[in-house]
Design a protein that fits this description.
- This protein is α/β, with parallel strands linked by helices.
- Among the domains are: 6-186, Alpha-Beta Plaits (2-Layer Sandwich), CATH 3.30.70; 202-339, 3-Layer(aba) Sandwich (Rossmann fold); 350-452; 865-959, no CATH class.
- It has 42 helices and 15 strands.
- The strands form three sheets. Strands 1, 2, 3, 4, 5, 6, 7 and 8 form an eight-stranded mixed β-sheet that branches.
- α8 packs parallel to α9 and α38 (867-883) packs antiparallel against α39.
Length: 959
């Protein structure tokens, strides 16, 4: 029969679970497979289908008409459904139809439509027939009798290109209920959407899948532009089913500080650092129990840090695999290095050149054609331009980026014109034996060639754009890249020209259009900018622009737009880092102003380690800076230290800031520093010092007539009163705060006060009031996107459920809080939530689980040095010992807590006195004559000794 050509509809099929069936029924499967093939051959032949490939149980069929393909699929499925399959059970065959233009040669087909159809098939289930939008549009008006198309919505397939609208064939003879499609949305990952398909890498992907099955660290190396990142992304997408805990891309191109490589890994997994722990430990502990693939992309400028992290993860996380891309090997233990080859190219000898219709067997030519058609839809390879196309691909050495840069010029030049221009430029770079360095020069020549086609103004604008890291907005480009003869209004046109010539990538996001340069092009532009002597001035404008953005953020603090601005700052993080790094070398005062502007962002978004590192470096470099600027930096460094539970450092930093404010007579700054000192002291359980600091600050704020400062002091005094068990004073302070916060429109602080008042109500047994207050607090915090606060409110609600005896609900709420707070590394709230889970587990009678939670909460509390929390954890373990009849252990721990609380001026117990005191008395009574000695031993313990005793695994009763 005559093969379909031009626009072809493809039908792909395979048997779901065939490997298992072969293992279980090897003899029966031979018969079943033969019958399966016969039924499909009969159905496709009846509708003029051409079977051009069979691989195992998979069929690949081409049809000239989409309606024939659909009819063949329906007949085939009906025959398969009706067939008695004996011992093997029903064969579940999945099918996919897609229509597109493909090239045929030697009885086989090539081109993107086949890849699309294959990806569509991979998304389906046995017995299901799926159609792409293209195929569905061609058959919808001529469906077989009783057949219907069910839209399944838009899905991203494994080739990572634009989403596909997918339809399912329905018919009374076919099954209709299937699990969700196996599209990218069905798996855990953060792989980005790609706007173009991967060309010419089928064999490489097969080899890489094989290698990743034999090694746990696979590094893809090669020249810039060789397609390492694109290949890694596709490999990750193809392997999603193999990694139930996800495939996670860690982008390192914009990172400049090696110590922050683990931070980037945490960000990829959606995690935050934890107080008192290194970034690497947090990342390792998260990945240890998981089967996941971590992609480290663009490691070359951070190779040592990446190697250290890779070795740590490989040693600690047995089910984790790493896929790295780098211009050089990591040289880490256990690494397998695989060099990404160039795309295949045709022989440049005219006598050996295949006819135009067969040039697409070479990956480089296939890529050139697809990108050229995108630039000029009517482009075709003909007898006249085929030699030029082959020469372009050969001279560009099959490097994907270079080929794409050449193909885009087809919008204004013929292939022959492109080839002639390349010939003059590359004559010296492609002659003789090519080495790795020559490959880099080839890519550079391609970039220079594209660059030379720009106008002078476009070149200048492009060079200045190289100062951005991680992308930029139009406003930013106008602020940083204009001047020196280029007006702000020209930026729109110049940026549009560069986007049109594929030198700048435009991406539309939630906040509008955003732009970026490919990393290779950015590096090239940076070299040109440096050579022109404009680099320092442009970097200064860059730093000034982002310092201005950070200053704008201050005006949004606490307001309704704050969450939006914080999200924008996350997007611009790479630019902030670049500006900070430049200013630290060149203009410390400007950099310190920028760092101070980022303080609130670092605090609220959990970038505590990074923020402290930048501020500490600036404080070391800016000893002679303006005292007010330095004092502000000390304030923010203290705030970050407090978030990490390092309250001793927080107080020390604030004491220095307090002195600077007093030195220059800044009473407002002095009052702010005193509030910070009060907060740190409260967290250290130093309530006398905390009260003194809050009261001194309150006096200053009242003299200044600043209600915003007054309410913060009242809040602090209420907190101290609550911690010391003075519920009446705490409530009075909180009620005044609540009225003021509502009056000021400060929703974040309102939510905090509501939750604190809920705790007070619960302590007094008013569960209804506590529930209402905590629910209102949670609603506000979710509205603000305050994840830490939401976690606090959740364990507050868990406490209410616990008091009501609903231990299952209490545990569920507190475990939800732990999951949120653990990711954020929120020290105090996390320990409280863990205590909530432990109490609920104890209420359910699950003693071993309660013990584990109390111990983990104790370790978190000890890391922070929070004495009051430590005591609460030990009391929890003491009550658990009572439940388990370990009375000597219980009495010793109760005695230790009693003495420690008395020495700190705390209430005798954080628990309900009506329950706590009888429990202590019962334990002492059960122990009899030994009770006094056990109580005295506990009373004599230091805090450290009490912690060690609580964590012992061999209490005397079970030695």
């Amino acid at each position: 029969m005559e093969l379909p050509t031009g626009t072809v509809t493809f039908l792909f099929t395979d048997i779901e679970g065939s490997a298992r069936l072969w293992d279980e029924h090897p003899e029966e499967m031979r018969t079943a497979l033969a019958r399966h093939e016969a039924l499909l051959h009969e159905a496709t032949a009846a509708h003029e289908g051409y079977v051009f490939k069979t691989v195992g149980d998979a069929f690949c069929v081409a049809f000239g008409r989409a309606t024939d393909a659909l009819a063949a699929a329906l007949d085939g499925q009906r025959a398969l459904q009706a067939e008695p399959w004996g011992a093997v059970g029903a064969l579940k065959v999945r099918m996919a139809l897609h229509t597109g233009e493909a090239q045929e040669r030697g009885g086989d087909y090539f081109g993107p439509p086949l890849n699309r159809c294959s990806r569509l098939l991979n998304a389906g289930h046995g017995g299901q027939v799926l159609l792409s939008r293209t195929a569905a549009q061609l058959v919808c008006e001529a469906l077989p009798a009783q057949a219907a198309l069910k839209p399944l919505g838009e899905h991203r397939l494994r080739d990572l290109t634009q989403p596909e609208d997918i339809f399912q064939l329905g018919h009374p003879d076919l099954p209709c209920d299937f699990p969700p499609l196996r599209s990218l949305a069905a798996f855990s990952h953060n792989l980005p959407l790609q706007l173009t398909s991967l060309i010419g890498r089928e064999q490489e992907l097969q080899e890489l899948q094989r290698l990743l099955g034999t090694t746990r660290l696979l590094t893809l190396t090669g020249t810039a532009g060789a397609g390492k990142t694109r290949l890694a992304l596709q490999l990750g997408a193809d392997l999603l089913e193999d990694y139930p805990d996800g495939v996670w891309l860690t982008e390192l191109a914009a990172l400049t500080v090696p110590s922050l490589v683990p931070q980037a890994g945490l960000g990829a997994l959606g995690l935050r650092e934890e107080p008192g722990r290194t970034l690497t430990d947090t990342l390792t502990d998260s990945l240890r129990p998981k089967r996941a693939l971590l992609i480290l992309d663009n490691c070359e400028h951070l190779v040592e840090a990446c190697a250290r992290l890779a070795e740590t993860l490989l040693r600690s996380c047995p089910e984790v695999r790493l896929l790295a891309t780098s211009r050089e090997a990591l040289r880490a233990e256990g690494e397998t290095v695989w060099r990404v080859p160039s795309l295949t190219v045709p022989d440049r000898e005219p006598a050996r050149l295949p006819p135009p219709e067969r040039l697409t067997q070479y990956g480089a030519v296939q890529l050139f054609i697809e990108r050229a058609v995108a630039a000029r839809p009517e482009f075709r390879v003909t007898n006249e331009n085929a030699p030029a196309v082959a020469e372009i691909c050969w001279r560009l050495d099959g490097i994907p980026l270079a080929i794409e840069l050449a193909a885009v010029r087809i919008n204004v030049l013929s292939a022959q014109d492109v080839e002639q221009r390349l010939g003059d430029r590359f004559r010296l770079l492609t002659g003789g034996r090519r080495t790795a360095l020559a490959r880099q020069q080839t890519l550079r020549a391609a970039v220079e060639w594209s660059y030379d086609l720009l106008s002078e103004r476009e070149r200048a604008f492009f060079d200045h754009l190289s100062v951005f890291a991680g992308g930029f907005t139009l406003d930013a480009s106008q602020a940083v890249c204009t001047g020196d003869g280029i007006e702000e209004w020209e930026a729109v046109d110049l940026l549009g020209e560069l986007v049109g010539k594929s030198l700048v990538v435009a991406e539309e996001g939630a906040d509008g259009m955003r732009y970026r340069l490919l990393e290779t092009l950015r590096a090239y532009g940076a070299q040109r900018l440096e050579a022109a002597g404009d680099a320092e001035a442009t970097h200064r404008r860059h730093a000034e622009h982002f310092a201005g953005r950070a200053t704008q953020m201050q005006a949004k603090a606490g307001g309704p737009e704050e969450a939006t601005w914080l999200a924008r700052f996350e997007t611009e993080h790479a630019n902030f880092r670049l500006a900070l790094a430049w200013a630290l070398r060149q203009e410390v005062g400007l950099g310190l102003r920028l760092a101070n502007g980022l303080g609130r962002f670092w605090v609220l978004c959990g970038h505590w380690t990074e923020g402290r590192e930048w501020l500490s470096r600036y404080l070391d470099a800016a000893a002679e800076v303006d005292p007010e600027l330095r004092a502000t930096a000390l304030n923010w460094t203290s705030a970050l230290a407090s978030e990490q539970g390092d309250y001793a450092s927080a107080r020390r930093l604030l004491e220095e800031a307090l002195g600077l404010h007093r030195e220059v007579g800044n009473r407002r700054g002095e009052a702010n520093a005193l509030i910070g000192i009060g907060n740190a002291a409260t967290n250290q359980d130093d309530y006398r010092a905390a009260r003194s600091a809050y009261e001194r600050s309150l006096t200053l704020w009242e003299e200044l007539g600043a209600s915003s400062g007054v309410v913060r002091c009242l809040h602090g005094l209420g907190w101290v009163a609550q911690e010391q068990g003075d519920a009446g004073s705490a409530r009075a302070y909180y009620e005044r705060c609540l009225a003021l916060y509502r009056e000021q429109g400060d929703k974040r602080s309102t939510a905090t006060i509501l939750n604190n008042m809920g705790d007070l109500a619960l302590d007094e047994g008013d569960c209804a009031a506590a529930l209402a207050l905590c629910e209102e607090s949670l609603a506000l915090r979710r509205e603000l996107g305050d994840r830490t606060g939401a976690g606090v409110s959740l364990y507050g609600l868990g406490g209410v459920a616990q008091r009501q005896g609903d231990y299952a609900r209490a545990r569920a709420l507190c475990e939800e809080a732990v999951a949120i707070l653990r990711k954020l590394g929120a020290g105090h709230p996390l320990a409280h939530a863990m205590l909530g889970v432990a109490d609920a587990a104890r209420g359910q009678g699950q003693h071993s689980e309660a013990d584990a939670w109390y111990r983990e909460a104790l370790l978190v509390s000890a890391d922070m040095g929070s004495k009051s929390l430590i005591i609460e954890c030990i009391e929890g373990l003491a009550t658990l010992a009572c439940d388990q009849a370990l009375m000597q252990r219980a009495v010793r721990l109760f005695g230790a807590c009693d003495a420690l609380r008395r020495s700190m001026g705390l209430p005798i117990s954080s628990a309900d006195p009506a329950v706590y005191e009888p429990q202590v008395n019962a334990a002492r009574a059960a122990l009899g004559d030994e009770a006094s000695a056990a109580w005295a031993a506990g009373q004599a313990m230091t805090l450290d000794e009490a912690v060690a005793e609580a964590l012992r695994d061999d209490p005397p009763e079970v030695q």
